[in-house]
Design a protein that fits this description.
255 residues, alpha/beta, Aminopeptidase, 5-stranded mixed β-sheet, two-stranded antiparallel ribbon, globular
Length: 255
């Protein structure tokens, strides 16, 4: 290829990639349309299902990629992505929509790595856990949007801090030589959580997820278990100490 043609071809390829992607914020209806568009383009390896509804009645949709959608295959790992837990943190929401489009497009093109990934893994993608909060933030627009605008759900609750605190139970259990896994939820947990949180907990209980990722926006940081460290007393005052899990090296590598 002539030297002067190489930059031109490279530019054309970049334009082709840029044209295939839609770098836009998606309101709820647009997000739903984007998910169903991917499903219609890759009908044999995708499925859309809802795990429940938000406070204001919006579906919490999940797009699944698998060679057998809707079926758990023995020994096949299941992975879930969750975005937009904080309604005004839009990066995860848009990245997961882009990931969905990418997986479908590359599968149709015969990309061997993507084909192997979809055939050997069951992937569940939830672009938005907090669609109500997103709509609040989107209505304000970027110029007048405060740090807390749309962060919480429609009841004003931070969903990221709405799950039962099992870390404390686990630490206490360790002190009395009790179990450090399969710790049951408190008896009254359903009355203490929001509809979105309830739906996600029931979702987790219904599928054999082996690994998950929750995408936020803001600082560049990776949180992994145990995210809540153990407090220890040192001469009448408390100090936070590192409390790694037995899988700490794996979590660091994955992060």
């Amino acid at each position: 290829m002539a030297r002067w043609l190489r930059p031109l071809v490279g530019a054309l390829l970049l334009l082709e990639v840029a044209a295939a992607l839609s770098f836009l914020h998606h309101r709820y209806e647009e997000m739903v349309q984007a998910l169903f568009r991917v499903q219609s383009q890759c009908p044999y390896v995708t499925r859309i299902y809802s795990i429940g509804r938000s406070v204001e009645g919006r579906h919490l949709y999940v797009l699944e990629f698998s060679d057998y959608p809707g079926i758990h295959e023995s020994l096949e790992p299941e992975f879930k992505y969750v975005g937009n837990m904080h309604g005004n943190e839009v990066l995860g929401r848009e990245l997961l929509l882009q990931l969905s489009e990418f997986l479908c497009e590359e599968y149709r093109r015969g990309n061997e790595r993507i084909t192997r990934l979809i055939h050997d893994t069951r992937i569940h993608i939830m672009p938005s856990m907090n669609p109500d909060g997103y709509e609040v933030a989107a209505k304000q627009g970027p110029d007048s949007n405060g740090y807390l605008t749309g962060r919480n759900n429609a009841n004003g609750v931070d969903l990221n801090r709405n799950f039962p605190d099992l870390n404390t139970f686990m630490y206490y259990s360790g002190e009395i030589s009790g179990p450090n896994h399969h710790i049951p939820l408190p008896d009254n947990w359903k009355s203490q959580v929001e509809p979105e949180t309830l739906a996600v907990i029931q979702w987790i209980s219904s599928y054999n997820f082996v690994l998950s990722a929750n995408l936020h926006g803001g600082a560049v940081v990776a949180n992994y278990p145990y995210d809540k460290s153990q407090d220890q007393r040192f001469r009448s005052h408390r100090r936070t100490v590192n409390t790694p899990t037995p899988d700490d090296k794996l979590f660091q590598k994955v992060s």
